[in-house]
Amino acid sequence: xxxxxxxxxxxxxxxxxxxxxxxxxxxxxxxxxxxxxxxxxxxxxxxxxxxxxxxxxxxxxxxxxxxxxxxxxxxxxxxxxxxxxxxxxxxxxxxxxxxxxxxxxxxxxxxxxxxxxxxxxxxxxxxxxxxxxxxxxxxxxxxxxxxxxxxxxxxxxxxxxxxxxxxxxxxxxxxxxxxxxxxxxxxxxxxxxxxxxxxxxxxxxxxxxxxxxxxxxxxxxxxxxxxxxxxxxxxxxxxxxxxxxxxxxxxxxxxxxxxxxxxxxxxxxxxxxxxxxxxxxxxxxxxxxxxxxxxxxxxx
Length: 300
Known about the structure:
Layout: H1 6-22, E1 36-42, E2 47-54, E3 57-65, E4 76-81, E5 87-92, E6 100-105, E7 111-116, E8 121-127, E9 132-137, E10 146-153, E11 158-167, E12 169-174, E13 180-185, E14 190-195, E15 200-206, E16 224-229, E17 234-239, E18 244-250, E19 255-260, E20 266-271, E21 276-281, E22 286-292
Antiparallel strand pairs: 1-2, 2-3, 4-5, 5-6, 6-7, 8-9, 9-10, 10-11, 12-13, 13-14, 14-15, 16-17, 17-18, 19-20, 20-21, 21-22
């Protein structure tokens, strides 16, 4: 089986959902002629599912048990496929007490290696140019304290750097060339830009008093990132060149995860508190459609 990189698969699924949302009621598009694959974490089940979207629709191909503590819910959280497609990587939030990131072989889904990181490693991303994985150590439990972002060399699975960014870092995303890393501080209301080669914070952008941000997208080709204002029902469009908020989209309750379709035309947002997925036209800044989810608390 040929497994495509998860980020491409997720983007393809998002693009497909955007197309479905724009169709008139009752319209039924033809299924794709080829299959797309994406890995999906089940955080409360300690499982990772390989999902296929293809000629027969959407289906779970198989489920992989992850974690090392049978009596505990360890919480797989962030997931990505490596640049060459040979391995996939998943963060395990809980540990004793620290969390970890693990490497599995695609195809067989056999465990290869793991590395212990900080408290509650959550979202992660991988730079193809440097083969470095960046994971946000969210540090969900205990009193608020500055959290960190870890850099892991994926061939050796060694942590090579750990950078303090702010309270509850989340939404780890990299620029296309792998030189810049972006995250948010959920309890600090900041967008943080990290030099992904020198391992240091280079810029911070305050998003507003009391804003709780949960996600930032990878930069678009025109130099924008999109950041959630989870508790203020907003998404901020940030111009990286000017380093300022250019537009604010008033969304449904609880925007949590975001993705931009490959053509750069549509922003897809999960409304974790609103039980829906929204599709935003980035040219006009208008929400084209909002689709209720079949289950509550949509995430990812």
